[in-house]
Specification:
It is a single chain. It contains two helices and four strands; from the N terminus they run H-E-E-E-E-H. The strands form two sheets. It has a two-stranded antiparallel sheet with strand order 1-2. Strands 3-4 form a two-stranded antiparallel ribbon.
């Protein structure tokens, strides 16, 4: 047994057939389908809209934007596509998630700590570095640019030859052409040197001109 309906005598100004997926052959909203569009007064889903505070997210209640279209208090939001001010926002890359400031981690971005430091880097390659560099023992550095000074508490090795501070001190403060105690003898531009107190030879001394020697 079916139902019979009176013919439509008034068409609502707010009725839009495009809103409904199942209509009668004449485009009218059928009773059986209309029943599926409404909730009974005891339907549990009505609790979602009871006690709503505009603009504030509450557990178990529907979200209703407040003034300005704002909603606060949302703990987490999951979606496949997020658009902000007309621009699509994509999920952040994995290398910026779970970062510890000041500590390097594999496949993670480097973020300095409050002291502008970062540690735990295994190897660092660069075409140029500037500023002050502080390193531990680095036996693998094979070349450097122009250095203005070198400070070392040990010896200096050049070409496989090691020289200590006491050995290199004989070259510091030398006056060419003048002999000085505990300093290397360096001739001046005329190939002369003076100030030698005494000179001892194990071989014969050859000179172009020798004035008469006075014995004492």
């Amino acid at each position: 047994m079916g139902f019979t309906y009176a013919p439509i005598i008034h068409e609502s100004q707010i009725y839009n057939p495009l809103f409904y997926s199942d209509l009668g052959s004449d485009g009218s909203l059928m009773y059986a389908y209309a029943q599926t569009l409404f909730l009974s007064r005891n339907d549990y889903r009505l609790s979602y809209i009871s006690g709503i505070t505009l603009g504030i997210a509450t557990e178990g209640l529907a979200l209703v934007p407040g003034p300005g279209g704002n909603i606060s208090g949302v703990g987490a939001l999951s979606c496949s596509i997020l658009t902000v001010n007309g621009s699509s926002v994509v999920a952040p890359p994995s290398y910026v998630i779970g970062i510890t400031e000041g500590s390097a981690a594999a496949s993670k971005a480097l973020v300095l700590d409050s002291m502008l430091d970062v540690s735990e880097i295994n190897a660092l390659s660069a075409t140029s570095l500037s500023g002050t560099l502080q390193t531990a023992s680095q036996p693998n550095i094979t070349s450097l640019g122009t250095l203005t000074s070198i400070n070392t508490s040990g010896s200096l090795s050049m070409g496989g030859i090691s020289i200590s501070s006491s050995e290199i001190s004989v070259l510091v403060g030398v006056s060419p052409g003048t002999a000085q105690a505990s300093k290397a003898l360096v001739l001046n531009s005329s190939l002369n040197i003076s100030g030698i107190g005494s000179l001892s030879l194990l071989r014969v001394l050859l000179v172009r001109y020798r004035p008469p020697l006075n014995r004492t």
